[in-house]
Amino acid sequence: YQRRRELAIPILIDSDRRVYAAYGLVRGSLGQVWGLATIRRYAQILRSSGRGVTDLTSATEDTRQLGGDFVIAPDGRLVWGYWSEGPADRPFLHEVVDAVERAGST
């Protein structure tokens, strides 16, 4: 993922999902994950990208995992977290940026 996206920041992989469980992240119900908000969001993404449904690929991971966004300080401390209630539930970008800036100044 990091190579494909050419990201200059570290991306941590939790293939056995131990950190996922330790952070209190859970698996959502079918209704939470594939509800109206999710379908709307995917439709919006497809419209804005100019791609159609035929361009979609099958999922390779558990699509019912409820995710989160976390900022880890250089010393390894979790300094900020956002636990999503569904796939369309994301934090505001300014919240993430503020947390990264605070983490870098500690």
Outline the structure in words:
- The chain is an alpha+beta fold.
- Helix content is 37%, strand content 10%.
- The protein is built from five helices and two strands; from the N terminus they run ααααββα.
- The chain has helices at 2-5, 18-22, 30-33, 36-49, 93-104, and strands at 68-72, 78-83.
- It has a two-stranded antiparallel ribbon.
- Strand 1 (68-72) and strand 2 form a beta hairpin.
Please write out the topology.
Elements (H helix, E strand, L loop, with lengths): L1 H4 L12 H5 L7 H4 L2 H14 L18 E5 L5 E6 L9 H12 L2
Antiparallel strand pairs: 1-2
Largest sheet: 2 strands, antiparallel
Q: Please state how the strands of the largest beta sheet are arranged side by side.
A: 1-2
C-alpha end-to-end distance: 28 Å
The gross shape turns out to be: globular
Radius of gyration over alpha carbons? 16 Å
Order of helices and strands: HHHHEEH
Brief rundown of the structure:
The chain has 106 residues and is of the alpha+beta class. 37% of the residues lie in helices and 10% in strands. The two termini are 28 Å apart.
Supply database-style keywords.
about 110 residues, alpha+beta, two-stranded antiparallel ribbon, 2 strands, about 35% helix
